[in-house]
Amino acid sequence: MTHELPFREVPYLPQKLDVDRRADGTTLLSNGQPLKACPEHMLAPLQHWARERPETVWLAQRDPVQPDRPGWQTLTYAEALPRVEALAQGFLECGAGPEAPVMILSRNSIENALVMYAAMLAGSPVVPVTPAYALLSEDFSRLNYIDRLTRPAIIYVEDGREYQRGLDGMEIDRRLVLFSRNAPVGHDSQDLAGFARAPRTAVAAAYERLTGATISKFMLTSGSTGEPKAVINTHEMVAANARMIRSVWDETRLDEMTGGPQVMCNFLPWSHTYGAHSILHNMLDWGGTLYIDWGAPTPARLPDMLRNLREVAVTQHTTVPAAWAALATELERDEELAETFFSRLIVMAYGGASMGQDIYERIQAVAVRTTGERISLSAGYGATETAPTASNVHWANDTMGLIGCPLPGNVFKLVPNGEKQELRVRGINVTPGYYRDAEKTAAAFDEEGFYRLGDAVRFVDPDQPERGLAFDGRTAEEFKLASGTWVSAGQVRVQSVAAVDGALSDAVVCGLNRDWIGLLGFLNEAYCQRLVGADLPLDDLVVHPDVLHVIREGLARHNLAYPNASARIKRILLLAVPPNGDAGEITEKGYLNQRRLLERRVADVERLYADPPGNDILTI
Q1: Could you tell me the CATH superfamily of domain 2-40+235-475?
Q2: Residue ranges covered by each domain of the chain
Q3: In terms of DSSP H, where are the helices of 94-209?
Q4: For 383-459, where are the E strands, in sequence order?
Q5: CATH for the stretch 44-56+74-210
Q6: With bands split at pLDDT 50, 70 and 90, how would you rate the model's confidence at 473?
Q7: Contact 129/105 with Cβ under 8 angstroms?
Q8: What is this structure's pTM?
Q9: What pLDDT, in 10s, does the model give residues 282-334?
């Protein structure tokens, strides 16, 4: 059996955990491994690797104008440093500093990274903004809210023509707009090549002024429950977070195993902390190579994601569960992809949302078939406010739903909250607060300075706390049925999707003030097409008897395992219209925005609960 086979070696250091149980039921957890020495700020690794690994590629991307062309455009560490310094000189001549943030409206790209690190070198906080706020919005209300909140002095767009409508929707006045291609019309603008200046002593002086307390970025929350908050990220937070992760690795052994620098190929957006820090900055800190993936786990962009992973043999791969679900299906049917993907891979990881055990089992089966070994698939956990990784599973792992143990550099506090344990964190990677919002800052921290994450956790084994913590639901996602029974929507979603063995890509949990739990289900289209033996559209798949049988049987097994009203599912409505990212139903990180979906799919919820149910409702 798969579970009896050995893991490919993962060079983690021995797991250590310090536990302090208080008389009031509160538990403090900290990692027994020391935090490795940290750079003082985020620019230090760039200088270091430009000197130590000048010819190593830092970033690679497809041709931005003709992405279908073969090959990659690359930027080495030696090439990157002078370009960052030249742009920093330009920012300094435009009055860069703590009161002159730089807004970035761009997909992930080499020039996005150069602007980002140049602005930080010049002392200006960076404001990375989700491109959709400028490209897809009808009224640009959220974009203008962020603009008024952070007051950027300069705005960078990758393509002035593409972002013309968004720029026109902002009150830019005389502020400078930087662009890489196609000057926007009607705004003071300059292309990056013309903006760069020969670095002078001012750049070196700006580097010396940087400290751990210097604000590096204002990272924006998703705003799913209101307007986005601007999370203050200091240089120390982000620089230390990379070393927190490296502090549980035997790095000498890792370099021996991979035969060179770490390699990743990743699409997670840099407008979010996961992509910007766990991927982009961590690869910089490692002195590794990041291939910028313009694909994603959506029907339109999945082919690009797969093309890239066929070409790039990664040493680590971390992404969101939605991407793992899509990749599992493709690995099962594409031997070429599987051969490349698993050839150098040391560890797999996920974050951003909980992932079902079924996805892991399918990926592991392909890994074993391809390599004869299991490959650990672990989880990282954190938030925008923790820069982001506060804990991870730093041991060979085959169990999904875990968040592991705290990393060196922060302390977890588990506080009794009814029948659950609420998780809070304090440490070097935790934000000092929200920019220009003292009230929300005060509410976010408890009397001991621990940040309230809003999640519940539990010990995998209370008698062996070193086995780590498991996610136990998001307190904000819990709701009551009409009977007063509490439902943990996050847990029900993961458990129900896992129960159907891959036929569902995700689900929305319904039941607030209702008598029972129902689901709005989204099919894994590729999996279901293979199940029925034909490339049918979603309209046909949602009524296909083979698909209905698999889902009914899977959810029946779920109900046997979880018979209580707090988890038992009575009905499911399979939706032929997939979640719409442009409408906020699915985030850039690839997971469902449950609140937004329930707001936009009110008619579907009413169909789900109609009495008697329609023919399109599957009763379990």
Answers
A1: ANL, N-terminal domain (3.40.50.12780)
A2: 2-40+235-475, 44-56+74-210, 481-619
A3: 110-121, 132-135, 141-150, 164-168, 192-195, 201-209
A4: 389-392, 402-406, 410-417, 420-427, 451-459
A5: 3.40.50.980
A6: confident
A7: yes
A8: 0.85
A9: 999 999 999 999 999 888 899 999 999 999 999 999 998 889 989 999 999 99
